[in-house]
Write a structure and sequence with these properties.
This protein is mainly β and about 140 residues long. The chain is built from one helix and seven strands, in the order βαββββββ. It has a four-stranded antiparallel sheet, with no helix packed on it. It has a three-stranded antiparallel sheet with strand order 3-4-5, with no helix packed on it. One of its GO terms (molecular function) is protein-folding chaperone binding.
Length: about 140
């Protein structure tokens, strides 16, 4: 096995390093917050009554990933959030979450809102899929 590289001194290609590994910091003492991942899909009457589009409740038919992160004793201004195609990186003064996402997402079309009464950050990300027989858009 030989790695082909433009620079003979490199021992791996950048494609071999998983996305998000640059954020891993095993020495960071901040605790990991509780979080919940759920999936959301848009369903119309043609799906509910007629089953015309062939959608089912599986994650293969979902368009969005919704991540709810519990952040007690945190202010909105203290939250730093970075989203890439396969990684969510959240940092606060007391908490740190590096989450490898189950599906690639469109990092430019996400939205986040902080529910201050519940102390929860809700992040909604659009799943980026190739077109197939289930996903037409």
């Amino acid at each position: 096995f030989q790695v082909k590289s433009e620079n003979k001194k490199t021992i791996w290609n950048t494609e071999e390093v998983p996305e998000g590994s640059e954020f891993d910091d095993t020495w960071d003492p901040r605790e990991k917050p509780e979080y919940e991942i759920s999936f959301k899909q848009h369903v119309g009457t043609e799906d509910v009554f007629f089953g015309m589009t062939g959608k089912d409740p599986s994650t293969a038919c979902c368009e969005d990933i919704v991540i709810k992160i519990k952040l007690p004793e945190t202010k909105y201004s203290d939250i730093t959030l970075d989203i890439q195609d396969k990684v969510l990186d959240l940092r606060t003064p007391k908490k740190k979450l590096l989450l490898h996402l189950p599906y690639p997402v469109n990092s430019k079309e996400g939205r986040a809102r902080f529910l201050s009464e519940e102390e929860i950050l809700e992040v909604t990300l659009r799943v980026s899929r190739k077109l197939d027989f289930m996903n037409f858009s």
